[in-house]
């Protein structure tokens, strides 16, 4: 008698976007939830999503700076756990709003506020069920040269300078212009 192993598909952080899912410009951030700089950047991102409505999509990747912020790793795991119920962005904003209160019990309360129904949420946190996903983001960030949070990329191009609205807008505008130019250069298919 063979036991059938249940396969649980985990929604990875790299697959979670806000904004227009078909946008040709992707703004990507490597950040963490205890950082004041990342919290400020989150407000900038909200404004960018509003001002570039329909033209961009945003992806948040976890880059916990655990030497400075010991609770950032678990906060990242909590965010990935909420993504499994489609509540990542609700939790994302709640975590930034409560960045000084990210203990395990608080994370459970924040998940309820985000609308998560999973009864095993606390168990998943304690058992680091989503630890591999956060570690995977961290490794990818390191492989891409990330050393600090927040670090932004626009269509894969690393943003140099500060994470201000003006700086990020410059990169987004350049990417939008590049997309338009590329589309104009594409040959038009002729009918036979």
Short description:
The chain has 192 residues and is an alpha+beta fold. The protein has 7 helices and 5 strands. It has one domain: 3-Layer(aba) Sandwich (Glutaredoxin), CATH 3.40.30.10.
Features:
46% helix; alpha+beta; Glutaredoxin; 192 residues; 5-stranded mixed β-sheet; 7 helices
Can you characterise this structure?
There is one protein chain. The protein is α+β, with helices and mostly antiparallel strands. It has a single domain, classed as 3-Layer(aba) Sandwich (Glutaredoxin), CATH 3.40.30. It is 46% helix and 11% strand. The protein has helices at 36-51, 72-83, 88-97, 104-114, 121-126, 131-143, 165-185; strands spanning 18-19, 25-31, 56-62, 151-154, 157-158. A five-stranded mixed β-sheet has the order 1-3-2-4-5. The longest helix is centred in the last third of the chain and has 21 residues, at 165-185.
Per-chain topology:
Layout: E1 18-19, E2 25-31, H1 36-51, E3 56-62, H2 72-83, H3 88-97, H4 104-114, H5 121-126, H6 131-143, E4 151-154, E5 157-158, H7 165-185
Parallel strand pairs: 2-3
Antiparallel strand pairs: 1-3, 2-4, 4-5
Helix pairs in contact: 2-3, 2-4, 3-4
CATH architecture heading? 3-Layer(aba) Sandwich
Order of SSEs, N→C? EEHEHHHHHEEH
The overall number of domains is 1
Poorly predicted regions are none
Tell me, what's the shape? globular
Mean pLDDT: 92
Give helix % range.
40-55%
CATH topology: Glutaredoxin
For the secondary structure, the number of strands is 5
Strand coverage percent: 5-15%
Q: Radius of gyration, Cα only, in angstroms? A: 19 Å
Which CATH first-tier class would you pick?
Answer: Alpha Beta
Query: Biggest sheet, in brief?
Result: 5 strands, mixed
Give the end-to-end Cα distance, rounded to a whole number of Å: 61 Å
Going by helix content, strand content and strand pairing, the class is: alpha+beta
């Amino acid at each position: 008698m063979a036991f059938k192993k249940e396969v649980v598909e985990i929604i990875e952080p790299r697959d979670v976007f806000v904004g227009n899912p078909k946008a040709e410009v992707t703004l990507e951030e490597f950040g963490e939830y205890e950082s004041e700089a990342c919290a400020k950047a989150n407000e900038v991102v909200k404004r960018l999503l509003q001002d570039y409505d329909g033209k961009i999509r945003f992806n948040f990747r976890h880059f916990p700076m655990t030497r400075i912020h010991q609770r950032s790793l678990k906060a990242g795991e909590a965010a990935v756990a909420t993504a499994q119920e489609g509540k990542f962005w609700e939790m994302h904003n709640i975590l930034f709003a409560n960045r000084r209160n990210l203990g395990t019990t608080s994370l459970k309360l924040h998940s309820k506020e985000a609308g998560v129904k999973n009864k095993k949420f606390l168990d998943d946190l304690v058992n680091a069920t989503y630890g591999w996903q956060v570690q995977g983001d961290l490794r990818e960030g390191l492989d891409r040269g990330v050393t600090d949070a927040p670090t932004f990329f626009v269509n894969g191009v690393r943003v140099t300078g500060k994470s201000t609205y003006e700086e990020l807008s410059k990169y987004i505008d350049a990417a939008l212009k590049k997309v338009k130019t590329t589309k104009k250069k594409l040959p038009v298919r002729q009918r036979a």
